[in-house]
Write a structure and sequence with these properties.
Guanine Nucleotide Dissociation Inhibitor, domain 1, 440 residues, 13 helices, GTPase activation, FAD/NAD(P)-binding domain, 20 strands, single chain, alpha/beta
Length: 440
């Protein structure tokens, strides 16, 4: 079994190694992480984006930089953290808590109120709305679909989320930040679906927040490139083999089934193949594009109280769009930038033929910007399940700034490969909290 070396593929190979499969990893790149790599030194980022010359001296040492190409945070109680705990990859990683979560309203940013106390002091809402929102949060916290007493007469599988918001008489602005900054939906389609999923998402946010207090998000020191390396080590412990810088010349298919991969004239045989969609244009379809703009700043983002890391969500209604715009900021405090420097990455799903104009509301929040790196990537999804060919493709990374959708993809591939659902409890070993100093 072979895989191109993305975070998704690395996690799967780690899980498969633990389950006793023999895993070989090949990557055409000289670094870990493929599309989701962290690029170091800074000179390499300039080359990658075809910028002339070298970074200015004001940017500090090139080696001090580790810049994620696809920015994402981990939810403290989310699926990826559970996968890290189950596989004990946490031994190789150090995390820091992201210091704040913000939402955009009327051209300004506000801290996301996610506890009953914060709701009452938030300037996002008027005094009566605060009380209603607090009642809504109490309802969500007590919500248990198996206990009718907590449901207040609603049917979690039939009542829509729109009806729940109406029940608590919540206005459009509150619905915007609840759906997009707490439940982390990218569009408003969820409003007319049964409410149980949205309520459970808000619970996940609140429980993740309760774990460390500042925000529900964690981020690894030295960047996301540490994640695939952690899973690479895990795989190696269980006998997995790694080959970086190996050009993939041909994927060999016989009678419709994958049998091997050819690299530098040699064939490595396999029964199953996992890879990212860029290796198989003929087995994927494009469903859209994502624009990402990496911005180097010499200052924290305004109106955040000068914190070293944060997430900002711009709900689509606020900027007359169909998709949200995301900003995530990290800094020298995470060993990913030179002293006194910040990296803010804005991303959204492309809707027009002028993507840079679409992302302007986010860039306006970041001014002045020292240097921008703009990329537009196709969103590719596999056109078949892979069960016949035994070639299993992941989806491209979406515009979200958390790993929950990525984990859904991992579980989906696992199910296609093994024919069984990914079961956390089955894989859960002795769980202790190994995040150690994350909260400090």
């Amino acid at each position: 079994m072979h895989a191109a070396h993305d975070v998704i593929e690395c996690i799967l190979s780690g899980i498969m190694s633990v389950k006793g499969k023999k895993v070989l990893h090949m990557d055409r790149n000289p670094y870990y992480g493929a599309e989701s790599a962290s690029i170091t030194p800074l000179e390499d980022l300039y080359k990658r984006f075809n910028l002339p010359g070298n970074p200015p001296e004001s940017m500090g040492k090139g080696r001090d930089w580790n810049v994620d190409l696809v920015p994402k945070f981990l939810m403290a109680n989310g699926q990826l953290v559970r996968m890290l705990l189950i596989t004990q990859v946490t031994r190789y990683l150090d995390f820091k808590v992201i210091e704040g979560s913000y939402v955009y309203k009327g051209g300004k940013i506000f801290k996301v109120p996610s506890t009953e106390t914060e709701a009452l002091s938030s300037s996002l809402m008027g005094i009566f709305e605060k009380r209603r929102f607090r009642n809504f949060l109490i309802f969500v916290a007590n919500f248990d679909e198996n206990d009718p007493k907590t449901l207040e007469g609603i049917d979690p599988h039939k009542t829509s989320m729109r009806s729940i918001f109406q029940k608590f008489k919540l206005g459009q602005d509150v619905i915007d930040f609840t759906g997009h900054s707490l439940a982390l939906y990218r569009t408003d389609d969820y409003l007319d679906l049964p409410c149980n999923e949205a309520i459970n998402r808000i619970k996940l946010y609140s429980e993740s927040l309760a774990r460390y207090g500042k925000s529900p998000y964690l981020y690894p020191l030295y960047g996301l490139g540490e994640l695939p390396q952690g899973f690479a080590r895990l795989s190696a412990i269980y006998g997995g083999t790694y080959m970086l810088n190996k050009p993939i010349e041909e994927i060999i298919v016989e009678n419709g089934k994958v049998v091997g991969v050819k690299s530098e004239g040699e064939i490595a045989r396999c029964k199953q193949l996992i890879c990212d969609p860029s290796y198989f244009k003929d087995r994927t379809k494009k469903i859209g594009q994502v624009i990402r703009v990496i911005c180097v700043l010499s200052h924290p983002i305004q109106n955040t109280g000068d914190i070293n890391s944060c997430q900002i969500i711009i709900p689509q209604n606020q900027v007359s769009r169909k998709h949200d715009i995301y900003v995530c900021m990290i800094s020298f405090a995470h060993n990913v930038a030179a002293q006194g420097k910040y990296i803010a990455i804005a991303s959204t799903t492309v809707e027009t033929d002028n993507p840079e104009k679409e992302i302007k509301p986010a860039l306006d929040l970041l001014e002045p910007i020292d240097q921008k790196f703009v990329s537009i990537s196709d969103l590719l999804v596999p056109t078949d399940s892979g069960t016949d060919s035994q070639i299993f493709l992941s989806r491209s990374y979406d515009a979200t700034t958390h790993f929950e959708t990525t984990c859904d993809d991992i579980k989906n591939i696992y199910q296609r490969m093994t024919g069984t659902e990914f079961d956390f409890t089955e894989m859960e070993r002795k769980q202790q909290d190994i995040f150690g100093d994350a909260a400090e």
